[in-house]
Amino acid sequence: MSAIRQTTHILKNSDIVNRPLPSSLLPGEPIVNTADGIMYFSGVTTSTQGWTPAGTGATELTFFEVGSNLYDLQLRNQITKYQGQTGAGLDGKFLSGTTNGFVLANIDDINTFSAFTYANNTFSIYESNGEVNSVTVNYFTGLTITGNFNVTGDTTLEGLTASTIYVSGFIPTQVVYVGPNGQLKGENNFSYNESTDTLNVDNIEVSSNVVIQGDLTVLGAAISAFTSNLYVEDPNLQINYNPTGSTDLTSVNAGFTIQDGNGVSLGDVNLDIIRMQNLTGLTLTQIPVLTEYTGPTGYQNRGWITQLNDIVIRSSSVTDNGSLGDINGVRVLAEFDILDGGTY
Predict the structure, then answer these.
(1) How high is the pLDDT of residue 321?
(2) DSSP-assigned letter for residue 320
(3) Residues 106 and 66 in one domain
(4) Residue-wise over 85-100: b if at least 16 C-beta within 10 A, else e?
């Protein structure tokens, strides 16, 4: 049967901040400093007696502070002192959990925003200082937007990778552009091939200058140049050209066509290649001997034809200013004349 021992527990108090403990305290005897709001136990400097001082100062060597082993610790008022900081020293501070316990940290060090608001179908993000300026989001994942995503102002996207942004409804090779009302859009015929570094576009319209540093290849049906001046550096202009096959079948009637070249609407002028063996419409006394044109091919069997009745050669002036005497040709090929190189 255990003995019942009756003891008396006496709490002493002090109302002076940092008051030294009285020398009459016994080991383990409690004392409450009502000025500091702290309970102390007197201690000794030798651990063999079961007490270890908590501090290192001359006064603290004789006592240690009381902690709490409660499961639920409730504070009825604010914490007015922590880690030696009081008053203005606590402004802009918060308790941050660390591996060594809670410490004071600066609120400004938190990379967050102070306000998120939603009103009139608008979600707003404010900076920690309350201003609405630029907001930088370093990293987040799993953002899903159902509906339109509208951006007002300049938008900069840096460091994009294949897994950075995924827009539902776009195939991987589509180029995303800003359509009506600022909506991001993509088209099947507006795409980029990363393996060949090729941009594929159905139609391109440019309102200013275009500079092409490499070769230009056009595979369409026509090229139209609505310009007053055309400059070509190459001294040899080649037509009827096909880089992959022979063009002998299309060489006949190849040449130049000058729209309204005879000075009348729909009066085009041609300078074309013809087969001389098909030359007809003249009398036997007005044309060369046609028997020299033995076939449809070869330099000797083809000629240059035009609807123009006269050709001026050896003229020192080639500018027609619309007045008499501008052109001073020495030799004129008149009607029914053929410049015949003959046989050799």
Answers:
(1) 82
(2) -
(3) no
(4) eeeeebeeeeeeeeee
Q: Is residue 201 part of a domain?
A: no
Q: How many domains does the chain have?
A: 3
Tell me if 90 is assigned to some domain: yes
Q: What is the pTM of this model?
A: 0.48
Q: What is the mean pLDDT of residues 153-180?
A: 61
Rounded CA separation 92/21 (Å): 35
Question: Which DSSP string do the residues of 18-83 spell out, in sequence order?
Answer: TPPPPTTPPTT-EEEETTTTEEEEE--S-GGGT---S--STTGGGEEE-----SS---SS---EET
Task: Tell me what pLDDT residue 235 has.
Answer: 93
Cα separation, 40 vs 25, in Å, equals 11
In this structure, are residues 80 and 96 in contact, taking their beta carbons and an 8 Å threshold?
A: no
Q: Which of 74, 94, 119 is at the close of a domain?
A: 74
Contacts of 216 (CB under 8 A, 6+ apart): none
The answer on pLDDT for 167 being more than 60 is no
Reported as type and span, the H/E element at residue 134 is none
**In 3D, which of 53, 59, 18, 10 has the Cα closest to residue 38?**
18
Q: Residue 142 has which token pair?
A: 């799993």
Contacts of 268 (CB under 8 A, 6+ apart): 257, 258, 259, 260, 261, 262
- 3-class SS of residue 263: coil
